[in-house]
Amino acid sequence: MVKIINKLDNIDLLFDKGQFNIEKWTLYINGIYEDSDYIFKQEVDKYTKNNKYRWKNDFLPIINNVYNNKNIELLKSSFLEVTNNINEKINKIFNKRLNVDIVLYLGLCNGAGWVTKINDKTVVLLGIEKILELNWFDYYSIQGLIYHELGHVYHMQHGKFITNLPNNKVKFVYQLFIEGVAMYFTQLILNDFNYYHQDKDGWKSWCDDNFHEIIKDFDKDLNDMSRFNQRYFGDWCNYKGKSDVGYYLGAKFVHYLISNNTFDEIINLESDQVFKLYKEFINANLIKT
Questions:
Q1: Exposed, middle or buried by CB within 10 Å (0-12, 13-18, 19+), for 16?
Q2: Tens of pLDDT along 132-176?
Q3: Which residues, including other chains, have CB under 8 Å from residue 255's CB and lie 6 or more apart?
Q4: What is the pLDDT of residues 62-102, one digit of tens each?
Q5: What is the C-alpha separation between 102 and 113, in angstroms, rounded?
């Protein structure tokens, strides 16, 4: 069952005169899931320890932007509208149920949407600080964000979601694949196979026009790609002035796969099968690897 948890009431109490208070936040997050604060703080540490990102410059201003933000009420109403009868919507299309909490909360810039495990419970975490930063608080954007994260949950609970991968090259091809699966899951629910919640200011048209360049560069970058230099997954990434281009490319990959497989067959592929099919996808688009 999908359980809906809204933790935005009295969110301004986590600030002192408009400045975020990490001690108050720690009590807040542990009140949602016991002893869970370290999970969020560890994610921040991964990005700050190499000095590429700094807490005061890159994280804190985004969190402080939440204080007294006029768009929070619209975000709340969008969230409630999207999640209304969500169990029935998913079961009607896929004839399967999900066991997950969807939590709307204030995070530490861990992501607008994030699927993880907390205390053995699968959770979709929707961080309002990132949602507000990205201007994704309207119904259209929240809809795509929630369905995308539920696509990951569906993959985890009804397919093979592989985490133990042999090297970075396979890892990032597999990330391309799982993001494509989640995008396709969203498109299935909406019955719109051109839908991308990132599509603002001509984003999809630009991706369509530059598709072959994107696939060529992604395949070339694989040789040296790491978590910190990849430019395809995440709003903070920059591929020729655009973010999240990997989600578009992943969806195109899954569109290619779906021509010969059912969705449930695709989500049960092993990582070596995914890598082989990725190579076929590259070759089918006339790109030499």
A1: exposed
A2: 999 999 998 999 999 999 999 999 999 999 988 989 899 999 999
A3: 184, 193
A4: 999 999 999 999 999 999 999 999 999 999 999 999 999 99
A5: 10
Token code pair at residue 21: 């208070």
DSSP H stretches of helix in the chain: 22-32, 37-48, 60-64, 72-83, 86-94, 128-133, 139-158, 168-190, 203-209, 211-221, 245-258, 263-266, 271-284
Residue 186 region by backbone torsions, left for phi larger than 0, else alpha for psi between -120 and 50, else beta? alpha
Amino acid at 205: S
The encoded tokens of residue 237 equal 């990434």
Q: Tokens representing 284?
A: 């089918």
pTM given for the model? 0.91
β-bridge partners, 2 = 100
